[in-house]
Design brief:
Length: 142
C-alpha cells in the first residue's frame, strides 16, 4: 500500500490549522506540540520521523520530465518541467517548457510570446512575484 505524504509545508500548515482550531475551542498548545500531533495523525512516531519520511523534495510532478499545469500572467498553460532546484524548504526554482507559448504583454499593439519560463515557486504553488493587480505571476495547480 502506498500512501501520499504531504510536503513539509503542507504538514506545517496542517499543524497550524490544528493549533488554531484548538485555540478557538479554548485549548492552547505550542507549535512543537501541534507538529507532534500532526505526525501522529499521519501515522508517524514523531515530527522528526515524519520530516525524514517526507524529505525536502519537490511535490509530485515537480521533477524533470514531470507535467504541470497552471497560469502565467493570468494565461493558462500546460508544461514539462525541464529543471528543478531546491532553494529552501518548500521553495523551488523551476524551469518549464510550455506546450504552447503565452503572450507576456497585455498591450494590443504588440506581443511577446514566451515558450520557456523560469520561476521560484513556494509551497502553495505560487510565485512570490506579483503582477500589478496583486496576483502571483505564476500559479501551478496542486
Amino acid at each position: 500500500m502506498t500512501r501520499h505524504l504531504p510536503t513539509i509545508a503542507e504538514a506545517k500548515a496542517q499543524a497550524k490549522r490544528l493549533r488554531t482550531r484548538l485555540a478557538e475551542e479554548g485549548q492552547e498548545i505550542g507549535h512543537a506540540q501541534s507538529l507532534e500531533i500532526t505526525a501522529h495523525q499521519l501515522g508517524f512516531r514523531d515530527w522528526n520521523t515524519l520530516h525524514a519520511a517526507i524529505g525536502n523534495g519537490p511535490p509530485d510532478g515537480w521533477t524533470p520530465g514531470g507535467r504541470v499545469a497552471g497560469s502565467y500572467l493570468g494565461q493558462p498553460f500546460k508544461a514539462t518541467v525541464v529543471a528543478v532546484a531546491a532553494l529552501q524548504p518548500g521553495w523551488f526554482r523551476l524551469e518549464l517548457e510550455l506546450d504552447e507559448a503565452v503572450d507576456v504583454v497585455t498591450f494590443e499593439s504588440f506581443s511577446n510570446f514566451r515558450k520557456r519560463l523560469r520561476a521560484v515557486v513556494g509551497p502553495s504553488g505560487h510565485s512570490k512575484e506579483r503582477t500589478s493587480n496583486g496576483e502571483p505571476q505564476l500559479k501551478l495547480e496542486m
